[in-house]
Amino acid sequence: MQKLYLTICLLIIPLMLIAQYKSEYDIKENSLQKSAGVSAVQNSQIISNGVLEATMLEGGYFTLGTATGLSESVLDNNCDITYGHPYAKTSYPFYSIDAQMYKLEDLFSWDEINSPIINGDTITIAASNSMIDIRFSLVLQENGQSVKLVTSVTNLDTLEHSVSAGFIFDPALGKWGDGYAKLNNEFIGEELLTSTDQVSNLELWERRTGAQGMGLNIDFQEDDPAQVCLLNWSFAKDFNPYLLANYELISLYDLTLFYNADSLLQPGESLEREVNFTLLQPDFNTPLFTRWDMVQAITINDGIIFPNSMTTTLEVFNTTETDQTVMNIGSEIPSYIRVTPAAQHLTIPANSYNYLRVYTTTKIVYENKIADMALWLDGDTETLDIVNRSMFIPQTPVSDEGLTIVDDSIATFNHPDIDVVFSVENDETGVRIRNLTEENVFLYENGVRIEEFELSKYTGDGINEADIVFVLDVTGSMGNEIDGVKENIRDFASNLELQGIDYRLGLVTFLDVIENTYSFTNDVEAFRDLIAQQYAHGGGDGPENSLDALSEAAEFEFRPQAKRTIVWITDADFHESDGVTQLSTNEVVNKLLQNGIVVHCIGNESFRLSEYDKIIIPTGGDYYNIYGDFEDIFLELSNMESGDRFILEYSSANNMGEYSVDIQIRYAGLGGNKTFTYMLQPPEANKNDKRLDFFPNPFNPTITFNVDLQNYRSGTISIYNILGQLVKEYHLNSLSSNAVTWNAVNEFGQLVSTGFYLVQLSLLDSKNNSYTETAKILYLK
Asked: How far apart are CA 406 and CA 558, in angstroms?
């Protein structure tokens, strides 16, 4: 289904433009786009008492906000209480007649709905037909800090009807906020369905950590049992209170409050429902009070995959009488999101604001995620403020086909620890995927999802082949960088050799056009000569043609089993789908992914988020500042893992019996899966009588095994790699030493690769009773 970023707010101050949209779930009214003018909003009314403001649009849509708020601080002046004040359509009364849900515009024709009318401190809208009469009012209370929502329904029909009346309330406390629900004095993190008799106190606050900001008390002035639902706004799109029992509750990321109650109305009877909203004294009691315009939901447009890059803003207010300096901005962010503040230092004058840009990039995810994010602002000796946001990220569309899990095995020797070794191959290209992360893998045991596991490169195969293409900008400003490559390429190659990597180097140079293409060579001196032939020239006109150059590099004749890497070096942004190139970023990224290529960028920080991250993040690459030390950059780039096999490790909760392990892979829009089975036998009676000890573990390269042979006449120590292949074996008898030393060589005297190994002790007594014990050891360099 096509998903669109949509907005419903008409007039918002410029800084709010980034954050205040509702993605696919907003009411789709073209007349209420942010680009529309005020004249597009017909028949709207607004009232104010100097503290609160209330707005009602035609159809009964309403908003609440502050004029001056309750405190002396400027932090609650002109702030939202509902989303999009004053011209939004996400809060409204709703009604059901005989279990069918309606908004006013669904229940009545427009000529049956009167325009909102102001009468003193009240705005009222009325609608009527031959069956039913409805009135809805916003009433500012005399205390100056409360507003009452009142709706009445009268049955004008000759038949009785089951009638429900309620409100959908979309909070947005403060500026760019949403609202955290505090039920019976505890904050609620998950969606919740409850009834009014279970609610002794319901409050909404701008923040849930540190100073809580603006607050609102909600009083359901209703004696009859009624339903209160704390859900995400996404549910408002198809809200039906009669189906709530079947709704799958999830974490809150975009709070909406639903309230309704049923009554059976006889002809001529009426019901009335009231909810009272009261501003609470705000809490701005931290040295700094920070607001962050991070969006609450990201969508996918026409199936285009992530990353999605955003420039967001921190608005930081100093609540104290002295200047405050932020010395560090820390974060707790999920691995699939990258958050980068534009600076780590920020000075905020006393009783004043300062602003900081925060760059955010989202990686591809293959299941719906609700990301909880936190930023904290540290001074010299204390944390000055913490700001939290939650964001919904939908899963990227992906096929169930296109990938095959190969070269696989499962090891259960060290149960309950289970190890699965595997590679993943693209069915169309035959290319092995080398940059899987835990977000690409879904693990199940006997149909139960296993969330906790570790995925890493399997080192038992050793490090072998690497094909590396340098894609080099040779425009006039790149002279120092060309020299940097030339001066460091020998050390780069030498470090690859020290790791035992069989490397080949290739080169593509470009300006607005591809200038030179040099195929792979393993002669580092010849390659250095090629670099020396390059010189900086031309350019000076802004973007260069990186996309054609990267596409050209992707067509090199890579070896089937080689790690495929592009080192992209440029100080400029790039042309896209214009007169210079017909290629789009998405086309190039897909080509790189299909060919299993990782792109690292040595580039200009100014273009990192807007340009480079769109390529390096989905391909699994890294960014390096082009104005850094090339020696250090090349040293880090040369420390590569080229193997295409992965080891997945998890702890099983099962004991005895037959079990299935299902691994599903999602990568670059493709999918594949493999099911393994294993059998656990009952433990031997003497299993806990350990007879094998070893030290050190991990080891390098020598480990000593100590064996207790008491009552046993013979045995073996067998060492296996993680695939279950025998590497080395020692035979024991009653005359043998109880200590056996292994120096990490196989039966042929060859040094084995680093990684995990399994050691199995097998003993036999005079009556041919056997004893077996298995343990895992780790060889590190």
From this structure: 20
Rounded (5°) CA angle 73-78-81: 105
Helix axes 524-533, 479-498, angle to 10 degrees: 170
d(CA 233, CA 239): 10
The first and second tokens of residue 416, run together, are 């309950």
Q: Which of 752, 760, 699, 757 is nearest to 732 (CA)?
A: 760
Q: Rounded to an integer, what distance in angstroms lies between the CA atom of residue 30 and that of residue 263?
A: 36
Which pTM was predicted? 0.70
Confidence grade of residue 686 (pLDDT, cut at 50, 70, 90) = very low
Sheet holding 353-362, edge to edge: 288-292, 308-318, 353-362, 337-341
Strand partners, 346: 326
User: Which helix (H) or strand (E) is 552 found in, with range?
Assistant: helix 546-554
For 12-35, the pLDDT digits (tens) are: 222 232 233 443 333 333 333 333
Indicate the pLDDT class of residue 375, thresholds 50, 70 and 90: very high
| Sheet order of strands, 703-707 included | 692-695, 703-707, 739-742
Residue 24: what pLDDT?
37
Name, in order, each residue with C-beta under 8 angstroms of 574's C-beta and a sequence gap of 6 or more. 543, 544, 545, 546, 547, 611
Report H helices in 134-221: none
Please name the residues in contact with 84: beta carbons below 8 A apart, sequence gap of 6 or more: 8, 9, 10, 12, 20, 63, 90, 172
d(CA 695, CA 578): 64
Q: How far is C-alpha 338 from the chain's CA centre?
A: 9
* Residue 495, SS3 per DSSP: helix
Is 191:232 a contact under the CB 8 Å cutoff? Answer: yes
More confident: 64 or 13: 64
* pLDDT range class, residue 221, cuts 50, 70, 90: confident
Q: What's the confidence (pLDDT) of residue 239?
A: 67
**What does the pLDDT read at residue 316?**
97
Q: What is the pLDDT of residue 462?
A: 52
Task: Say if residues 602 and 567 touch (Cβ distance below 8 Å).
Answer: yes
Close Cβ partners of 615 (under 8 Å, ≥ 6 residues apart): 550, 568, 585, 588, 589, 592, 599, 601, 621
Cα–Cα nearest to 614, from 582, 650, 589 = 589
Q: How far apart are CA 690 and CA 694, in angstroms?
A: 12
DSSP classification of residue 699: B
Q: How far apart are CA 453 and CA 646, in angstroms?
A: 13
Can you read off the two tokens belonging to residue 638? 């040369």
Is 275:167 a contact under the CB 8 Å cutoff? yes
**Cis peptide, bond prior to residue 307, ω within 30 of zero:** yes
Between the alpha carbon of residue 69 and those of residues 73, 120, 495, 667, the distances in Å are 9, 20, 64, 50
Q: What is the pLDDT of residues 38-57, one digit of tens each?
A: 334 556 889 999 999 999 99
Angle between helix 479-498 and 630-638 (nearest 10):
30
| Confidence at residue 177, expressed as pLDDT on a 0 to 100 scale | 82
Instruction: Check: CB of residue 32 under 8 Å from CB of residue 8.
Output: yes
Asked if 436 and 665 touch (Cβ cutoff 8 Å), the reply is yes
Rounded to whole angstroms, the Cα distance separating 771 from 687 reads: 8
H or E segment to which residue 308 belongs: strand 308-318
The distance from CA 610 to its chain's CA centroid, rounded to whole angstroms, is 19
